[in-house]
TrEMBL record:
This is LacI family transcriptional regulator. Residues 322-349 are annotated as: Disordered. PANTHER family: ALANINE RACEMASE, LACI-RELATED TRANSCRIPTIONAL REPRESSOR. GO terms for molecular function: DNA-binding transcription factor activity; transcription cis-regulatory region binding. Keywords: DNA-binding, Transcription, Transcription regulation.
Amino acid sequence: MKRPTIADIARQAGVSKVAVSYALNDRPGVSPARRAAIKAIAEEIGWRPNSAARALNGAQARTVGLTLCRPARILGVEPFFMELISGIETELSTRSYALMLQVVTSPEQEMEIYHRWWGEGRVDGAFLVDLRFADPRVSALKELGLPAVVIGHPSAAGSLTPVWSDEAVPVRETVEYLAALGHRGIARVAGLPDLVHTVLRDQAFTAACQDLGLDRHTIMHTDYTGEEGARATRRLVSSPTRPTAIVYDNDIMAVAGMSAAHEMRLDVPGDLSIVAWDDSPLSQVVRPALSALTRDIPAYGVHAARTLLSLIDGEEVEGVEDRAARLLPRGSTAPPKEKTPPVPEDGEK
């Protein structure tokens, strides 16, 4: 079946195409009764406006854009972005907006996409994720004039509107909890080292360990994949000064790290306690269930989308600080095992 057109509506309504255009765009020139009849016919035959044609006429595309500079295969297993997008979509759908998503291989390609989308009138606004310090995308989007919301810390958002949550508070809460359990050697398996939220978590982790006198603390950076999480875990637990607790930057790496620990005949949590950032269903179906830093990620997406739509509407908008993650202890954390004292030889007391 071919797409219904304005000509089809005009034929059924017995009016000109100009009259149909006036009615559908709520312009004067047709009576209220005729406008209602034309809109009813359009709804009945399934007519929808052509977004490209609307863009050429200066109308809104009713679409916002999101590019992700991550391997496409990761998105299928990365709970954070799936939950974030679900929250964004929830808010957009209430306003009949669509989300245009594209995976890219570099920040340069990301900006090319945004330039093309904005120049062709395909989007009315955009989200910027995976923020870096002195991020050239921030100034480029501002120069472009594209309404944009940064999902990231305001310290690197420039003049763009940020939506963020505190990274330091949950990190400190986790380190203090593990130290209270008796852990003295704690490691952090982190994500990409040039991302703002990674740096902020690294700084908070180091500061908390130093304040608590934990001299055996380590940070290893990865690409967020399960493979890298498992590899980092093997290296850490093979060390002569292996940690008794590891905090991972996502639950994919935490689950992979748990598998690597079991492979090396370590008991979780007896020999190794594990904490994951973000509490997806994956954290709860493994055994033992993962202690996790939990937050309402879909709500995070809702707030980002609501902020962007307000920008598109021309409103004065301030940044939004979302609720920080909180620690939810489960079965993967416990006090470390006491070292078994050596058995005395015959004759020794």
